[in-house]
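In practice, a research group might receive sequence data for several interacting partners and want a quick structural hypothesis before committing to experiments. The following worked case mirrors that situation: the sequences arrive first, and a predicted assembly follows.
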Amino acid sequence: MTKTLTIIWRSGSMMAMDSNVATKLAAAALRKGYKVNMFGYGEGITAVKKGQAPKRFPNVGEEIEELAKAGAKISLCETCYAARGFQRGEEVEGVKIGSLTNELFGFISESDRLVTIAR
Amino acid sequence: MVRTAFIVIRSPQELDPVETMHRLADRDDSTAILFEDGVYNALQPKRSALIANAAADVIVAHDDLEARGFRESDLKVGKAADYDQIIETIMERTERTVTI
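A structural hypothesis for the assembly, expressed as tokens:
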């Protein structure tokens, strides 16, 4: 039975490299054949904004889009998203606008390991 | 005891991880995985002795070491690892993770 890893990230995409650590962990886990879920909330939701154009940093939005294409299930908190003025459709492809109670707890209940990257 | 992976992402000057590590798991059951500024826990003599005393294994994200201008040979404790090795540790060699 394939093991499942859930990664929670909660830091803003530009305030530290936390969201990049989260995406690199997810990419490595997919490479090694594990199932991967990711859930972002709080400032973490900034990482899924479409059209980011960082000049000298990795583009975490593109990384998340690639992870979704590679099979990761990625969701984020609708409340946190709306609280920061984002509208549905502003997120990169493959990310589901969800909630802690549904998506996150669903992810956790099916996971063998849970990693939180936050400060 | 539960084999615990402590994920450390802040420098020891910002947040000292060892007190929490001692409180949550025995040294023999603990692995410290150092990311971002957490790598400084394995580079400074005093700090590396403290984390070596709290975790039997110390793993340092190679990318974050190099990003800060260091090499594996600069480590006072532990070894550098890539993300595949880190995932192996999280998924197969420990049973729970705690982020500090």
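Before designing any experiment, note the following. The mean pLDDT of chain A is 95. The first strand of chain A starts at residue 4 and ends at 9.
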